[in-house]
Design a protein that fits this description.
This protein is 32% helix and 28% strand. It is globular. The chain is of the alpha/beta class and 265 residues long.
Length: 265
């Protein structure tokens, strides 16, 4: 499966925020989208999800525009993991996850035994089976994020869009969520995620889309895009890209050089 953005211009009330977007992501790849606040990441995400109409261009799956797709079909192909979600009622984690089965239920139908079994199966595959009976509002941020990922996965999507999946999580929970992203890609799911943390690109990104302050669109592999020069263009600050090897595995990171932003406002 291939998810593509073709000649896309997106914005509000006819005013373009981003334009000239062309990229494709194939099964098993992770595309990380990053850039400074206000550059248009959320606008792009809403347009890819079909929540915001494109000004021009189109979003396709295997060459077919998703614009005419009914919500039910879209939900069966594309899953979405929001940055955070707190339901108004104290549902159990299992109940929250089962909500993802809505796209596969008939009108006025209620989830059946098989839907609950699938919810528990997905939680188990994510290493979160112990959360099933817990109250969603009383678990940690990292555990809630795993529940939201599980909710998206019970839709059986082929494409998963994730809005800053590791935001506001502690170090261990960030690692847990990013490891899950890599596992999903290994299963053949297309993952497109936004992040404010450049290191996340090195940890799980196959490709990166970097949006600069001038709304330039830089696309390529992490090695091609995540350079000190490009990071300055995007964020207006100098960085050092570190490289090391641990047990034969390359490790990379992005470290800001403090004070440089004041020199180049």
């Amino acid at each position: 499966m291939i998810f593509s953005v073709e000649g896309l211009s997106c914005g509000y009330r006819g005013a373009s925020v981003l334009s000239g977007l062309d990229f494709s992501v194939k099964s098993g790849d992770v595309l990380c989208i990053l850039g400074p606040n206000g550059v248009g990441k959320t606008t792009l995400f809403k347009t890819m999800l079909g929540l915001l109409p494109a000004i021009s261009g189109r979003v396709t799956v295997d060459g077919e525009s998703i614009l005419p797709w009914p919500p039910r079909k879209k939900a069966q192909v594309i899953g979405f993991v929001p940055q955070s979600h707190i339901p108004p009622f104290p549902y159990t984690v299992q109940q929250v996850v089962v909500m993802g089965r809505t796209a596969h239920l008939g009108m006025f139908s209620a989830p059946g035994e098989r839907d609950y079994e699938l919810a528990d199966q997905v939680l188990d595959e994510l290493g979160a089976a112990h959360l099933s009976g817990k109250v969603y509002t009383r678990i940690s941020g990292g555990e809630r994020q795993m529940a939201l990922i599980a909710r998206a996965l019970v839709q059986s999507p082929r494409i998963l869009l994730m809005d800053e999946p590791a935001a506001n999580l502690d170090f261990a929970n960030q690692a847990m969520v990013l490891e899950t992203v890599r596992t999903l890609a290994e299963r053949g799911i297309i993952v497109i995620m936004t992040t404010h943390t450049p290191d996340h690109v090195f940890l799980c990104g196959s490709d990166v889309l970097l949006l600069t302050r001038e709304r330039e669109i830089l696309r390529g592999t992490p090695e091609q895009v995540m350079t000190p020069e490009n990071m300055r263009r995007a964020y207006g600050i100098d960085v050092c890209i570190t490289r090391a090897e641990v047990d034969g595995h390359p490790v990379r990171g992005c470290v800001p050089i403090l004070g440089t932003q004041r020199k180049n406002p």
